[in-house]
Amino acid sequence: MPITLRKHAHAALQGARITAPGRPDREQYSVRMSERPPTGVTVVKLAWCCLLAGVVAAAMMFPFAGGLGLMSNRASDVVANGSAQLVEGDVPQVSTMVDAAGTPIA
């Protein structure tokens, strides 16, 4: 809702500050550059936020990483079982290699 002032009222209020009813003055809560928090506090807050972001990212990636680990364990079990079946079979005592004519070569 725009406020229109007459010229003489505008001249009288030129140096005055007008605030909306029920709202505090902005300058009362403004922070000047000289009043900023110490650097150590800012660094600690930044480190805390980075740690929290890392924990959240790790929690979101855990199902994928766990699934990959489970799949690799199952794949290694399949390979180990295949190797164990080869060892359990009957191995011939003596093998002889022959050429096309039937003479032994090894």
What does it look like?
The chain contains three helices and no strands. Helices cover 57% and strands 0% of the residues. The relative contact order is 0.04. It is mainly alpha-helical. The chain has helices spanning 7-12, 26-29, 39-88.
Helix/strand layout:
Blueprint: H1 7-12, H2 26-29, H3 39-88
Q: Alpha-carbon distance between the termini?
A: 106 Å
Question: Approximately what portion of the residues adopt beta-strand conformation?
Answer: under 5%
> Oligomer, anyone?
single chain
- Average pLDDT score: 78
Number of helices: 3
The profile of the biggest β sheet is: none
Query: Globular, elongated, flat, extended or rod-shaped: what is the shape?
Result: rod-shaped
Note the run of SSEs as H and E: HHH
Helix content: 55-70%
The poorly predicted ranges are none
Gyration radius over CA: 41 Å
* Class by alpha and beta content: mainly alpha
**Tally of strands:** 0
What descriptors fit this protein?
mainly alpha; 106 residues
Short description:
The protein is an all-alpha fold and 106 residues long. The chain has three helices and no strands.
